[in-house]
Specification:
Largest sheet: 8 strands, mixed
Oligomer: single chain
CATH architecture: Beta Barrel
Structural class: alpha+beta
Number of domains: 1
Distance between the termini: 84 Å
Strand content: 25-35%
Number of helices: 3
Amino acid sequence: MRRGGQRCALLLVGGALLAGCAGTERPAAPPPPPIVQEAPPPERWIRVRKTERTLTLYEDRQPVKTYPVVLGKDPLWAKLYEGDKRTPEGEYHIVKKYYHPFWSRFMLLDYPTPYNQEIYAWSRARGLLPERGHSVPGIGGAVGIHGTEDETLNRSGVNWTAGCVSLFNRDVEELYDLVPVGTRVVIER
């Protein structure tokens, strides 16, 4: 039998008369269970502080280990062009890791980034780059974190690199095993 938009039925079950109506519309489905997402693993990243001459490995905001470093021969200013012997400033990533015959380990950074290229182009357009012959130097590259061939220079605090960040060999070997390719590296004054 029909009543409004519903179908109704009478059933005799075990001597009892049962009645019920069912709508032609399906009842709403129950809400799905909440999706439980695992928290992402903490980010492991590196901060280099040029004025403090330190490299600190972090797990999220928690410092894990700090190492002494030396920098490019002109450690105060940010790298602008090839041969300026300055260590760049900004956010980079380790793009390659390999053993190095002189510096123990080498972790190549993705310098120059688009931001570095923008500053270089702006400086070049305004004639702020030195002339070499009839041209200006390029932006440079091959900047990384590595060990040293002469640990006495690092021990004495001599900034000897062409723009890289140098650690003691035992420190760069430890760090090399702790960070994968893709690790974020923040270099700040």
